[in-house]
Each structure stands twice: as structure tokens, then as C-alpha cells.
Design brief:
Structural class: alpha+beta
Helix content: 10-25%
Oligomer: single chain
């Protein structure tokens, strides 16, 4: 579901850019690999905005909720769902610095206007083969502001060259594997037996 969520975001942001007559500059790729990508004639992410999954963590507050499904006359027990928060970095690698700043401003503007994403309110390429398994989803996104020290560490880990960027925290996506631990019959009723003592 991680790829699908990032693809939905990419489509949504590009749709917004397109509505502003600014093309579709957002690509899902690793900003740390941009120098290598620019030497590959088959990949060209110059004059674009790269969307990179920077980190993820588990939402601990929902970790201990039991995962139980009722099917016909059975109760099915599964491992707990994993609820993830994703940290997504938008980095502008445009031809000019001014254009990069404008793109980052547009991204901030888009997410200011839309923070909640659901199946009903999202406009993405539903005919894409990779999106066939996407069912009901619901996640929110908010601007995440790292300290100068954290920002220095982030760009140091990504290769040292800093681009105009915006970091967002996406909460929460569910990861569930359809694998049962055990199942048992449902309790149909409770009765009290009585014994007569003579």
C-alpha cells in the first residue's frame, strides 16, 4: 500500500499543477540518486520535482487493538494491523532557483487546501494496473518542520546537496496481510443448566 499511496499523491499534486497551467513536474523517485540518474540517458529528472519516501514509523497508539473478523458462524483472529506514518520529501530540481521556490510554494498551497485523502475525494489514475487492489482508504497529510540540525542530518544522509524542499508527514496507512492465526465458532447463546437434588 506504500507505493499506491505515493502514486495517489503524485497524481493528485500533478493534477493541481496541471490545473494551474504548470505541467506535471512531480515524479516519484529517490532524491539521493539524482546525480546518478542524470548520467543515465534513459532517466531525466532535471527540471522536475522529486517525491521521496524519507522515513516511516509505526503509529504506536493503535498497536494493541485486536484484529478480529466475523465470517458467517466463525470468528477469525489475525495479527494486529500495522498503521504507518510516512515522511515524504518534495524536492524541486528545476532549471532556476526561482522556479523551484514557486513549485514548492504550489505544493504547500495544494496540501493547505487538501489534507484528507479518501477513495471518494481523490482523483488518481484508477486504470493503472498497480492500483487495481486499492480499495477504501483514508489518510491525512500535514507539513512537518524539522529543526536545522535534523535538516542538516537529512541532507547529509541524502548526499549533501540541498534543494528547495518541503517535508510532509502522512498519517496513517494500514498494512494488513490476509493471513489467519486461528478461528473459532461464534457463541450462539448462554444457557444455565439446573440440577435437581433429591
Amino acid at each position: 500500500m506504500i507505493y499506491e499511496v505515493l502514486q495517489i499523491l503524485s497524481d493528485e499534486v500533478n493534477n493541481y499543477f496541471n490545473s494551474q497551467a504548470m505541467g506535471t513536474p512531480v515524479h516519484m523517485d529517490n532524491i539521493a540518486m539524482i546525480e546518478q540518474d542524470q548520467t543515465d540517458p534513459n532517466i531525466d529528472f532535471r527540471d522536475s520535482v522529486l517525491m521521496t519516501l524519507l522515513n516511516m514509523n509505526e503509529e504506536k497508539t493503535l498497536k494493541n487493538f485486536p484484529n478480529i473478523k466475523q465470517e458467517a458462524n466463525k470468528v477469525v483472529y489475525q495479527n494486529n494491523k500495522i498503521n504507518l506514518n510516512l515522511f515524504i520529501l518534495f524536492s524541486a530540481n528545476r532549471n532556476t532557483y526561482a522556479r523551484s521556490l514557486k513549485d514548492i510554494s504550489k505544493i504547500v498551497e495544494f496540501f493547505q487546501g487538501k489534507r484528507l485523502f479518501t477513495q471518494a475525494n481523490s482523483d488518481y489514475n484508477r486504470s493503472n494496473v498497480a492500483m487495481v487492489g486499492v480499495q477504501d482508504f483514508r489518510f491525512t497529510i500535514e507539513l512537518y518542520t524539522p529543526s536545522f540540525e535534523e535538516l542538516n542530518f537529512i541532507w547529509g544522509a541524502l548526499g549533501g546537496k540541498q534543494y528547495p524542499s518541503a517535508l510532509y508527514k502522512l498519517s496513517m496507512i494500514e498494512i494488513v496481510r490476509d493471513s489467519n492465526i486461528t478461528s473459532s465458532s461464534r457463541i450462539g447463546g448462554v444457557g444455565i443448566g439446573t440440577n435437581t437434588v433429591e
